[in-house]
Amino acid sequence: MNCPICGKRKPARFCPAKGEEICAICCGTEREVTISCPADCNYLLSAHRYEDEHKREIPADSPFVTERLPRDILRTQQQLLSLLAFQIAKFASADKTVTDLDLLAAVTALAATYKTLQSGLLYERVPDIPAQRDLYQALMQFLSEIKRKAAENGNTDALKDVNVFHVAVFIYRMGTLRSNGRPRSRRFIEFLRGQFPQAEEPRKEGPRIIVP
Asked: Could you give the CA distance from residue 106 to residue 121 in angstroms, rounded to a whole number?
């Protein structure tokens, strides 16, 4: 029997996504491209360790590449960063079809929307692809709820648009560095899920934002 993917070479590795053996070359070339690899696949983990040995950089044509983020963003916006990251991990845990590319597109759209909000206008950059659009809308709804609760408490400055913009850009850059750009990669998503294991437990509450 030949590899079920290429039909040419002899199968040599068991692929948990396919449920059968495939050849080593197809494993390497189709991994996270046409094959939705489970996060615990040994060959996938080995490939990720290899990728970690090679430094990645933000591409020059990335969105908001010229934006300068506050140096102390991790300290001053730690709570907002954790909240958005938790919401992303929760969404991606419920929908296994969401990829890193979907996440990055949704966060880019979120950043673009909040950049326009800084001028007092609302011009939403809603993604066209369903998974990206659903994640974007989930994050927008979450942030709107925070603003609503803050307004009820008489604090309209509890969540500033510029801070949301900066955090969204920060998440985008972090995701770009942690992902590998493959179409079906969930590497950055798995990183976030590891940071927030409670995101997979529907009955457990996630981190809360403190509204003064």
From this structure: 20
